[in-house]
Amino acid sequence: MTQLLNIDGNPKTVKGQARGYMTAILYLSPYTLSGHNVCPTAELAGCWRTCLNVAGHGGVPTGKWLAENVPDNAVQRARLARTRLYHESRAVFIAQLLEEIHAFTRKAERKGLTPCVRLNGTSDILWEREVDRDGFSLFANFPRLQFYDYTKLPQRLYSSLPPNYHLSVSWSGKSTRYQHAAEGIARKTGAPLVVARQGGWPEAGVHWSMSGLSPIADRAECVQVVNGDEHDLRFLDPPHSLVVLKAKGLARRESNGFILRSIAS
Question: Is 264 inside a domain boundary?
Fold first, then answer.
């Protein structure tokens, strides 16, 4: 049986332990790699070619390929297995996920850490619609547990999200329609707006200001610019934050508008 949750196996999420948190993430096969589309806006936002799916161990080459730029390695095969289980045996998947979350929370508590869970590590599923076999939402099973995700479906912020589920909006400039929706909804709801930038946080001595992010129309609505690579705990960011991440993996060479390429100083 393939394990579903990755517990602090991510170089950024493990940084949360310094702040007292332990993070579990569910990684699936993104976009349509499994034969099922788990990232509905991937083409519109332009992120499918440079997904973090192939960053880190997921990108280790083996000489064989599952798809373009996707190596046939143990990490990718596990993600495929999880995604197919989710689509083909949903009740089994949900039951296993609940068991693993229970075990994870106990592990974090034994270590004196606060557990938190991110279900869309490499997907954009509407988990707020998923229920267990008794009809209860995943989040209702763990009312004191903090869940969080990044999303490129910003309209989710207009729905009735569970109180323990925090969403940040991922920015993309590939599509004007998507960009305006992401910025507008982040502004209206106060959700952090997360932008990946080539080079990441400005180098020492570079002047940083809201006006430096010229492609982002609603920058004046942000109250704080946050270095998103310091940790992954987006639910700790102040409302209306602008979160800047360093482009990683294939995204470092991306030029289709998904990544913010430069800033004005």
Answer: no
